[in-house]
Design a protein that fits this description.
- By secondary structure, the chain is an alpha/beta fold.
- The chain contains four helices and five strands; from the N terminus they run E-H-E-H-E-H-E-H-E.
- The relative contact order is 0.26.
Length: 123
């Protein structure tokens, strides 16, 4: 994935895998939109980058792990995955830490990514 590739829907994921249902709801929304033919991109920001770490299994209170959902993205033709570089650095992570292939994006390029999508949802 080189350059910024726009689409119909950009889903921004800002929450960690466990502790709330925001991340799962965002991923589910992306899958449903893709199933109905929308081109979907995902942007992982803030604590949302933690969802990209390997081994994200089930959480407390019966929360399902995000790893199986991330593995399904390609099947739904969701292949534009972006990860905020600064969020990785702040958490001591790098590209090699991630369980899926995501393109790093710098903060100053995020506004261009937003402008290239007709719909944006924050989770």
């Amino acid at each position: 994935m080189t350059g910024l590739s726009g689409g119909d829907l950009l889903v921004i994921l800002r929450h960690a895998p466990h502790g709330s249902s925001w991340l799962k709801e965002g991923l589910d929304t992306a899958l449903v939109a893709a199933a109905f033919g929308q081109r979907v991109s995902l942007l992982f920001m803030g604590d949302g980058v933690m969802a990209l770490l390997p081994g994200q299994g089930s959480g407390p209170l019966g929360q399902k792990g995000t790893q199986p959902t991330l593995q399904m993205l390609e099947m739904y033709d969701i292949d534009s995955l972006w990860v905020e570089h600064q969020a990785l650095l702040e958490r001591g992570l790098n590209d090699m830490s991630l369980s899926v292939d995501a393109t790093r994006i710098e903060k100053d390029a995020i506004s261009r990514l937003l402008a290239e999508h007709t719909q944006i949802l924050n989770f």
